[in-house]
Amino acid sequence: MRLPLSGLGWLTAGLVVAACSGGKQSSAGGGSGPAPSGGVVELMKARGLSEADVTAALKTYTPTGKFDEYLTFASGGHSGQVVVIGVPSMRILKYIAVFTPEPWQGYGFDDQTKGLLASDSHGRNLSWADTHHPALSEQGGDYDGKFLFIGDKANARVAVIDLADFTTKQIVSSQLIGSDHGAAFVTPNTDYVIETTQYPTPFGGGFADPKTEYKTKYRGAAVFWKFDRAKGRIDKDASFAVEFPPYTQDLADAGKLASDGYAFFNSINTELSWGGNMEGNPPMESGSSQNDMDYLHVVNWKKAEELVKAGKTEMIGGMRVLRLDVAAAEGVLTFVPEPKSPHGVDVTPDGQDIVVGGKLDTHGTVYSFAKMKALIDAKKYAGKDDFGVPILDFKESIRGQVELGLGPLHTVYDNQGFAYTSMFLETVVAKWSLKDLKVVDKVSTHYNIGHLTAAEGDTVSPDGKYLIAMNKWALDRFNKVGPLLPQNFQLVDLTTPKMTVLYDLPIGLGEPHYAQMIKADKLAPVDVYKPGEDAVTSQLSPNATEGGKERIERRPDGVHVYMTAIRSHFTPDVIRVKEGETVHVHLTNLEQAYDATHGFAINSYNVNVSIEPGEASDITFVADRAGVFPMYCTEFCSALHLEMAGYLLVEPK
Ligand code: RUQ
Ligand code: CUA
């Protein structure tokens, strides 16, 4: 690929002139090896960089102290975290601990976050998650920068992250489903956070043999978690679910503007294959790929909401469920055929079309919401499936198909009327015109792109500018690090006539799936917590301790230590207990200075917390081992950080 010289010619020319006229840049060299003597041209030569490389560097390099224009929130895959990345610099700014203990943040170590991790985790001590799809909260279909949600595919959970402090506040799950994939996706005003099944299981839990009961007992569902914006938490009691047949539901997207009030889900297994390749069945991969068509699920969630309010539900697993027969009869659930093994379903910015990637098909199918709505309103159905769900005619439901190439998956949009679809098999991003459904450009990615995200590219007003290809394979892109390779995020420039790759960012933890990119100036996180704030409840902690009120109390349930931390000491700095006593440390960071974080660790008791300025945190443990245990601050907070220490003295019985 050739880049127009105009991009850089002026710069190198200018610098060459500057160098010739004595403008010295010579301090740039100095390392070992063939040290460039200075000047961009020499530097380029020494490092073997092309003009395109330097142009890319100029477009992404962000000097110290300068901020990024966008922030990307990416799923951290198996890490159970969220990765926050600046764009265009591609600097990683944070890993937000969500479903997994994370030592630096002390997440999963204090009572607050231990409780959070244990909540709604099926009564298990789950220490991982398979995070797939983050969803930023929206107002009017646009990101508002207030909250972030993310789904755990493996354990069918959804988490709420408050962007006021970039920390996790809530984890919810239902007993209805055994895995999710269409999660999390929000409705345009964040009334609901959508979580949809991937692999069907016996509805509400329990055992049923798929051999005899797959069709009758196994089900999927779309859970509509009600989000209470004022509280910043999901209200489980106000949530509901719509039952689906046991097709393997896949991704989801909420309608917006023209299609507001609807949500779309695709599915990949009308064959009802459940595996059993040693029980005389084909494996799922072929068993579920027999039919030419699967079903796009069109759900009228506003109608569902009305029916729920009217009490047309059944309580299953603690959740109000709109049963399949009701949903089908009342026009809540309608199917539209979709070509072989669809994957992504992405509503266009105006809400008028829904683009489905065909995975094993070379097309993107563009469904017209207006056409589908007219058919649904007129009850003009082409048939019904075995579960009584009405099916629309495929041809009458689409605006057209775009010939994309091999393995189309997901689609995002820009502000110029273009769509960008990730092509897994072809390992490119295809740019195509929404108006005439024609591909105009392709850029190679390295390699096998899964999701992609563009600047505000799934909202009602995308920005264009930047796109990130989230690649599954890295192969020859980075230094070798053994057989497990990082995933490769590639930043793509959307401002040039042809798309160009600007930067490779290896993600060395988990396999990220989706990401969303928000304008950074929409975010306004706090600098410090209110004095004594509990970061999980966002309220004043009942155990917050003021300076001068530190104390140790002996109560029937153990020893309560009301402790404070401020540069550079803990008060008290010695804890005396008897072997076998339960110790409750109520620790408050008295600092109100930005970035004045302290840590608190105790030798061999697995105590390790991080307390941000203002934060109050509770730590409980049983002093079951007699001895002397150093405790100390784990953040290099001041010149006397090493002196910020003390002892836990456990007297033998
Ligand atoms: S997806 S495999 Cu978002 Cu393409 Cu999860
Ligand atoms: Cu506080 Cu180091």
List the helices and strands and how they pair.
Blueprint: H1 9-20, H2 40-47, H3 51-60, E1 70-75, E2 81-87, E3 92-97, H4 111-118, E4 131-139, E5 142-152, E6 157-162, E7 167-173, E8 180-186, E9 192-197, E10 201-202, H5 210-217, E11 218-228, E12 233-244, E13 249-254, E14 262-267, H6 284-287, E15 293-300, H7 301-309, E16 314-316, E17 319-322, H8 324-329, E18 333-339, E19 345-347, E20 353-357, E21 363-368, H9 369-377, E22 383-384, E23 390-391, H10 394-397, E24 398-403, E25 408-413, E26 418-423, E27 428-433, E28 438-444, E29 449-455, E30 464-471, E31 487-493, E32 500-507, E33 515-519, E34 551-555, E35 558-566, E36 569-571, E37 574-578, E38 582-589, E39 598-602, E40 607-611, E41 616-622, E42 627-632, E43 645-651
Parallel strand pairs: 12-17, 35-38, 37-43
Antiparallel strand pairs: 1-2, 1-33, 2-3, 4-5, 5-6, 6-7, 8-9, 9-11, 10-11, 11-12, 13-14, 14-15, 15-18, 16-17, 19-20, 20-21, 21-24, 22-23, 25-26, 26-27, 27-28, 29-30, 30-31, 31-32, 34-35, 35-36, 38-41, 39-40, 39-42, 42-43
